[in-house]
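Saturday, quiet lab. Running sequence design on the structure tokens for the scaffold JK sent over.
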């Protein structure tokens, strides 16, 4: 389909809990989001067919817009016909469903397998085992490891093009024996993305036993090779979805294939990083799994945590990160078993919201701890998340709270931000759709990214350095659009929230005291626009690290919460919060 023929675009994203549908169309010469809908994802028992949930969403959107999306058989009508019937293009992304069980085969773990891990990062792939020359297993042990993993995919890489062949051929021989031992109906797809000079040998050894796909060598072959290898990976993931019961009917209708949600998010993270010439971080906290994508200096890193989420995976997330990591962010002693009970309840009541202040603080503490854990994952150290210029947030935990300043406070805690950080939210789940659309209609992506699809949350202005008790950290002068001048001194260990609508702008002058800075500068001038959370000045520095008593921590945390919530009443701490937990 050429650019000129695509006007109306229907995008559907299937999450573990929710199915979202977005309608993009040309309005006054530019693409705009014109309608959106959301409903429960119908995956698993009893129906296990995502089409049922999508049909419900599209019927509701049809009633709201007057546009008919489905024919009498329930298929999406394409292309768009007269009288607002159908759409020109139907694209689909998904994070729901089981991750693809995969074995990675390479020569060296610090080289070949690092490249393989990076290549598969934006896909929902569970690495069941790795096999390499330094694993200490020997041929028989490697054979057993592959067979016992029962992989759906084997990704083989290693060596440089035109380099040594013998050792790589030995590893291929092990992979061949493993595939031959697996049942015919359960044999994995094999992707070879290694030394190109052994490609013909790969086909000879494996093509009689399993489907073999060849990709360019992902080790030291440049960005184009990466893109080509990921295109092959995308085809395998799509094929897996197409043959599964859950997505079979939707897969028969989509124009794009079933693309991984995380890959679309990664594409848009890199897009914003190039546009801003700054590092950009995207965070998508889901119910069952979560995604981080970090882009800067022409590089991009993506990490998917299949065991971290605030719904289905809340219990596994707590087990993985540990209760102590959550307790660090609580202004009270949790009762024995309280955190476990809370996460189990979240897993049963997927769309529940905190009932009171105590539950709210547990949820925020879990969110902070999850983010901290994910940011420590190996592979993302090339880009410092504390120095990003923009954060894109997705998922109900970060877009549905309604408190933009509180969301920014949580991000500052988890990321330990430095300098000026712009925060945007993805309330409609559009990032994945835009990333998937980039290869088909790039003009639409540019126009939509700068229109009404993403929400301005606000801007974080974070001081860095060492705190001094009772000292002034920042002196701020704010010139409002009406000419009024506001002046504020922000003490060490404090925050200041300035409400500012997204359509308003202010001129700022900020001076940090000696020993402190904002993004490496003691004096800066800025012109900033607002958002749902306005502007948040954070001069807490190392206050949390210095706290030695729960009482002080509780006072500070509740004071900060009051500041970002616009509450003027004194902070009152329930006595029960400070009581030691009963064993």
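Result came back. Writing it out in full:
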């Amino acid at each position: 389909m050429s650019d000129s023929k695509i006007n109306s675009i229907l995008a559907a994203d299937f999450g573990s809990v929710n199915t979202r549908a977005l309608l993009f169309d040309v309005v006054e010469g530019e693409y705009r989001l014109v309608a959106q809908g959301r409903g429960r994802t119908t995956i698993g028992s009893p129906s296990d067919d995502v089409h049922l949930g999508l049909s419900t969403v599209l019927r509701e959107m049809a009633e709201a817009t007057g546009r008919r999306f489905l024919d009498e058989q329930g298929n999406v009508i394409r292309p768009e016909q007269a009288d607002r019937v159908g759409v020109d293009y139907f694209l689909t992304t998904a994070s729901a469903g089981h991750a693809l069980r995969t074995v990675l085969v390479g020569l060296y773990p610090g080289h070949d397998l690092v490249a393989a891990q990076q290549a598969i990062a934006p896909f929902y792939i569970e690495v069941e085992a790795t096999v390499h020359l330094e694993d200490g297993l020997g041929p028989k042990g490697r054979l057993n490891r592959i067979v016992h993993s029962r992989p759906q995919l084997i990704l083989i890489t290693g060596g440089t093009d035109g380099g040594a062949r013998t050792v790589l051929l030995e590893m291929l021989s092990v992979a061949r024996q493993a595939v031959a031992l697996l049942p015919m109906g359960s044999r994995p797809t094999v992707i070879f993305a290694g030394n190109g000079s052994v490609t013909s040998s790969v086909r000879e050894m494996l093509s009689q036993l399993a489907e073999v796909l060849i990709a360019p060598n992902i080790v030291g072959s440049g960005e184009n090779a990466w893109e080509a290898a990921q295109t092959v990976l995308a085809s395998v993931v799509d094929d897996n979805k197409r043959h599964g019961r859950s997505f079979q009917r939707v897969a028969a209708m989509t124009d794009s294939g079933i693309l991984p949600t995380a890959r679309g998010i990664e594409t848009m993270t890199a897009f914003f990083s190039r546009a801003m010439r700054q590092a950009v971080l995207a965070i998508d906290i889901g119910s069952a799994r979560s995604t981080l994508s970090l882009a800067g200096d022409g590089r991009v890193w993506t990490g998917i945590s299949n065991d971290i989420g605030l719904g289905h995976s809340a219990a596994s997330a707590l087990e993985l990160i540990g209760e102590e990591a959550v307790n660090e962010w609580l202004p009270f002693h949790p009762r024995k078993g309280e955190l476990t009970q809370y996460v189990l309840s979240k897993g049963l009541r997927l769309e529940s919201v905190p009932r009171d202040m105590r539950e709210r603080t547990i949820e925020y503490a879990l969110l902070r701890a999850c983010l901290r854990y994910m940011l420590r994952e190996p592979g993302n150290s090339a880009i410092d998340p504390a120095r990003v210029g923009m954060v894109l947030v997705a998922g109900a935990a970060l877009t549905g709270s309604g408190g933009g300043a509180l969301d920014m406070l949580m991000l500052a805690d988890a990321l330990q931000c430095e300098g000026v950080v712009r925060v945007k939210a993805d309330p409609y789940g559009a990032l994945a759709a835009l990333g998937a659309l980039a290869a088909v209609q790039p003009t639409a992506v540019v126009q939509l990214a700068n229109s009404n699809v993403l929400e301005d949350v606000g801007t974080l202005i974070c001081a860095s350095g060492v705190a001094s008790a009772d000292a002034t950290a920042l002196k701020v002068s704010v010139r409002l659009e009406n000419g009024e001048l506001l002046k504020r001194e922000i003490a060490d260990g404090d925050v200041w929230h300035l409400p500012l609508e997204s359509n308003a702008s202010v001129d700022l002058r900020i001076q940090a005291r000696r020993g402190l800075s904002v993004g490496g500068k003691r004096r800066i001038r800025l012109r900033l626009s607002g958002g749902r959370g306005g502007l948040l000045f954070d001069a807490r520095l190392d206050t949390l690290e210095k706290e030695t008593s729960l009482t002080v921590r509780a006072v500070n945390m509740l004071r900060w919460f009051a500041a970002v919530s616009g509450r003027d009443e004194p902070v009152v701490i329930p006595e029960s919060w400070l009581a030691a937990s009963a064993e």
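Notes for JK: DSSP finds 19 helices and 24 strands in the chain. The two ends are 65 Å apart (CA to CA). Ask whether to fix the surface positions before the next round.
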